[in-house]
Sequence to fold (498 residues):
Amino acid sequence: MKKIISLLVCVLMMSALLIPAGAANEFKNAKSYTLGALESSRIINSAGDNVYKFNVSHPSKITIDVLSEAYKMGLKVHDKSGKEIWSDKPAQKASAGQMSYKKDLFVNPGDYYFSVISAGQEGVYRFTIYQTPTYESVAEAQNGSNNTIKEASAIYMGTSYAGFIAMNDDADYYKFTLASEGRLTLNVTSQMERLNTKIYDETGREMWSDSPSGVTEDGFSVQNDLYLNKGNYYLGITKASGEGQYAFGLSLTGANESFSEAQCGNNNKTDAACTIVKNQKYVGFFSLNDDMDIYRIAINDPSLSFTIVSDVHQIQLTMFNQNGRELGSQSIVADKYSGRINFTKDITVPAGTCFMAMKRISGYGSFTFSLTDAGYAAEPPIPQSVICVSVNGKTVPFDQPPVLENGRTLVPLRAIFEALGASVEWDAVAQTVRSVKGNNQISLQIGSATMYVNGTPKTLDVAAKIINGRTLVPVRAVSEAFGGKVEWDQYSQTVVIK
Fold:
């Protein structure tokens, strides 16, 4: 029993230590003060602190203006919890007759306590606290509401926003979505001396940072162009030096990439390469989070002409066959006068499947390229999303890219069945595929919207079909028939099968 009592006493003593000094008495008995009013009183050494409670209704600059007969004093501001957010000990020579002091503070809305403290001098003082309200697009509590990535506030392209860095709130985080890859333009303006600005991807990984600073007393206004793939991102604006208001806005100029990519890229490996054809222009895109694009092409005539145009400073082109043997490599550098790549070269590659890897060496942005056999290439096709499929975390390679039809993804049957660990039997006469995995059997006829699972018919939203000589089947239906769990990752454009 004695031990329990001793423990309770310790807890109570520790709790008392956690209460800010003066909070139990001075703050409880604080005098109510209205901002803008003239208040006067007297410092008396033996009487303790004079404490005033006031309310700030908006994010504001508050100006503390003090005149005092006591030429030494202490001043403090606490938030509503009793936490000290500012203090000073102004002093002036006694010969001056009285002390004059003024200070600007930047605070969020809420209740505050202003304390006037004796510093060995007594005398009458007068003070006024003026409020200069400002505006913040995202309303925040006293100590901030969007101080971390997890608490980020949603913002949108093409809209202007106002933020506020306060003494008790030095960080703001915002969440935004890029519907397509492209050039993101970030404009930031502030009268503060310096700010920290950062962009994070959806995993919280830092992609870019800058610390703009004022070159004049009017602060700064900066514009940054960032190249990013589509997906979710975060903008962090945090204190570097000073407090006050800032304004910012985001806008996106789409890249119109021929094969739209998600955050970290879709076609960065050969088993996810995008299929292209001769005599057709294509648009690629290098971003902060994706510096590689790989393309697959079937070559019949080994003599071709390769052309690439871009504002990217330097690109490395590497060509290799389907066995991974390098066929040739070329470093392509922008012209030193125009700062632009405009490169054409005749190449000779063996017939068969060939891969082209475009790697960013320096610079970001779009590039247009083509492989031609007659010096002519059609304009870039309408951008299309690259659809990937992964089974148990491993990407499935396809010689014919998956296609989207009526909201359903069709994939080459042999590749998906083998990835699922199922057998594949093709009846060319009946145009029917049969597959077995464990105790499950399915049968599916080309052009039919009915699939048989262990002899039971199941109606499909889209029928299996032949595209470019390959039989494609609805990936969700066949995967679920074999007991797989199928999910769709919107931003990586990936069918995830577990």
Residues 2-18 form the longest helix (17 residues). The two ends are 57 Å apart (CA to CA). Confidence is low (pLDDT under 50) at residues 1-5, 7-22.
